[in-house]
Amino acid sequence: MENAFANNRLTRRFAALKAEDRAGLVVYVTASDPDLETSAQLLAGLPGAGADIIELGMPFSDPMADGPSIQRAALRALASGACMNRTLAMVKDFRKTEADTPVVLMGYYNPIDTYGAQRFAIDAAAAGVDGVIVVDVPPEEADEIQPVLAAHGVAFICLSTPTSDDARLPAILKYAGGFLYYVSVLGITGTVSAAADAVAAAVARLKRHTSLPIAVGFGIKTPQAAATVARVADAAVVGSAVIDRLAAGLDANGKPTPRAVPDTLAFVADLAQGVRGARQ
Fold first, then answer.
1. Domain-located, residue 65
2. What SS3 string covers the chain?
3. Is 20 a catalytic residue?
4. 3 occurs within a structural domain
5. Active-site entry in 33, 55, 123, 130
6. Annotated active-site residue in 66, 130, 234, 244
7. How many domains does the chain have?
């Protein structure tokens, strides 16, 4: 699947990053967290803050691979009225002013299945979505969603973990497009961090199997940690730490204070500075 999306935003962005000899910063935020207006403001500000690729979480009531930070974000979003229609509308509105930054939807299959996989693929492509990560769809079940996404030019982005050995990787890479997301630690998001040498060894091994860019996520909490990953990988993914910064800007009732979005974007800018200076 590696050459199926030769001219989409993800491919162009990674080519530009390679030309600049630097890694990218992938920033995860949850759609409609803590509410639609605040989430839309944050989304609109991410490219200017230095996010090279945006992962937009599709809120789900049982995000089993996510730690407490993203779980709470999903619950806040759902309480504010989040749904698939609203998430796709957010991307469509974002595209009115930002044509180049890739947007990847990330989440679980249940909301997609409820919406309808074919309808989801059509509407996601129309909204300007470039890729989709479905955490709970293994390669053995990818035929349910990958072909319909590919038919509409949307990459199905696959996950590899420390337990994905050389025998397992061909099954994963059969369906992978856009980039390969390496989950650097076992367990849920936002917890422990992988050792730098372990990440370097894992990225080197994966690159022997695929020409897809390798993005590394889970456990990256600081600009320094992002820079460490950016020295060896094609992108560093930061999610829970960004969500935590946003949550710190909410009041006791979970409502955003005036500093919520600016402080979160300032943190993203710090992460971007770490990533961009990592190979200098």
1. yes
2. CCCCCCCCHHHHHHHHHHHCCCCEEEEEEECCCCCHHHHHHHHHHHHHHCCCEEEEECCCCCCCCCCHHHHHHHHHHHHCCCCHHHHHHHHHHHHCCCCCCCEEEEECHHHHHHHCHHHHHHHHHHHCCCEEEECCCCHHHHHHCHHHHHHCCCEECCEECCCCCCCCHHHHHCCCCCCEEEECCCCCCCCCCCCHHHHHHHHHHHHCCCCCCEEEECCCCCHHHHHHHHCCCCEEEECHHHHHHHHHCECCCCCECCCHHHHHHHHHHHHHHHHHCCCC
3. no
4. no
5. 55
6. 66
7. 1
